Amino acid sequence: MKMFALLLRLAVRNVRRGWRHSIAAIGTMAIGFVALATFQGYLSELLESQLRMNFARNMLGDLMVRKPGAGGVDARVRPDKYWLDEKDQAFVDGWVKRHPADVKAAMRSLLVEGVANAGPASAAFMLFGHDIAQGQIARRDWQWYAWAGRPARVDEPNAVVAGLGLAQSLGCVPKGNLQVFDPKTAKPIPVERPMDCKTTTIQLTGSSPTGRVNALDGEIVGLTSGGVREFDQRLLWGPLSLAQDLVGNKGVDGYQIVLAEPQRAPEFIAQMAAEAKAAGLTLEPILWQETEMADLFRRGKEMLSMYRNLVVFVLLVIAGSAVLTTMAKTVRERTREIGTLRSLGFRKGHMLLMFALEAAVLALVSGLVGLAVATGLRFGVNSAGITYRAGMLAEDIVLEIGGSASTYLTGFAFLTAVAVIAGWLAARNVVQLRVAQALLGEH
Questions:
Q1: Which residues make Cβ contacts (< 8 Å) with residue 210, sequence separation at least 6?
Q2: What digits encode the pLDDT tens for the residues 286-328?
Q3: Which of 24, 91, 219, 382 has the fewest CB atoms within 10 Å of its CB?
């Protein structure tokens, strides 16, 4: 322990004495820290923000309740086979009532397809019928989701909000070029904006599971976006009763349950599955992330993780090479010092440890400098309200950089390991010299 303390003091002294080399090493590692922290913070915030937005704007629950196989191929051909009937719904409603403190919302939904007509114009649609009141809770901080017009209200049984593409096909578009999003939050500003429609009354035609064709009137009260351009061409949002009347059936696709404590979702899933089985019902409580609908999100997450790992590897190689070069030069210039310490009884292992400690001290200082720079950069970028377009998404994404202790600790640990290994490698050849060669400054 005494030898370690002595070597640590020597390492700190050497960092101060060789301040020119220290500044070069600190600058290199600080830049690497900032790059690692910023890049990982950006990717983690991108994934988290997109997941939060997806849950809010699509009213996804912390857990879903559906029939097994509801996301499969057969369910696309005969969706009614996988609807929850009134007995299933009574069970879920009862479970929700038994957990009033745990459940914030339990929203039923039903997706039906058909053709919408507005005078001579017609277009295929998918109506996402849902409990309006429960849906407002499930939307979290996206309760105002209208680009133009307004959201549907609880007391409007025929009100629908149309996707921008579908509405345009039916002769209804936003009027003027008004600002929709708050640049700071990337959420729609809760203001009713005008629409320019040839008619807001549309006729919705759909068929029941028995083949009966039903037609109902709907009233467009707002225009919105589904987040992906292809969805905008077909989607309608409206009350669950409208969707059920259109297919002549009281079934629902499932429930979206929003919990007061989302982290307890696995516990409630296991509990509900056991109670449903005991009641003789075939239900599947499940996390949205585990469903077929989340496949695109999972693949995107995997792709971003691979991209992140590649960039992190490149950054570590660059930072490690720079630190290795700096440490190697420092060690070569201190050959006589190494010989002197060896002549005083310090062993080769002591020399290697001393240089490793020097590298660790440099990494610590670099981490503090990099943390200050990365924090300032994060606040600057997040305050700027910068937006950009990405892939198939229908609207801009706000550029934000996340910051967490785990991200910073990970970056610091990586760079410390790189610095220590670089210091050890740089000193390894020099400490192998005989004491006489080292004292003469031979390399």
A1: 248
A2: 998 888 878 877 787 788 778 877 877 787 777 777 777 777 7
A3: 219
Segment 89-97 mean pLDDT:
97
What's 56's DSSP letter? H
**For the chain, percent helix, then strand, then coil, each to nearest 5?**
55, 20, 25
The 10s digit of each residue's pLDDT in 241-289 is: 999 999 999 999 999 999 999 999 999 999 999 999 999 999 999 998 8
CA distance from start to end of the chain: 31
Name the residue with tokens 């210091």: 423
The torsion angle over the Cα atoms of residues 37, 43, 49 and 52, rounded to 10 degrees, is -110
Whole-structure pTM over 0.85, yes or no? Answer: no
Phi, psi of 273 (to 5 degrees): -60, -40
Sequence-ordered list of residues with C-beta below 8 angstroms from that of 169, at least 6 positions apart, any chain: 121, 123, 233
Q: Where are the alpha helices (DSSP H) in 58-131?
A: 73-77, 86-97
Distances (CA, A) of 410 to 100, 414, 431: 40, 6, 31
pLDDT at residue 437, rounded to an integer = 59
**pLDDT score recorded for residue 396:** 66
289/301 Cα distance (integer angstroms)? 11
DSSP 165-211: HHHHHTTEEE-S----B-TTT-SB-S--B-EEES-SEEEEEEE-TTS
Taking CA atoms, 407 is separated from 41, 141, 156, 193, 275, in Å, by 7, 26, 48, 41, 40
In this structure, are strands 159-163 and 213-224 parallel, antiparallel, or unpaired? parallel
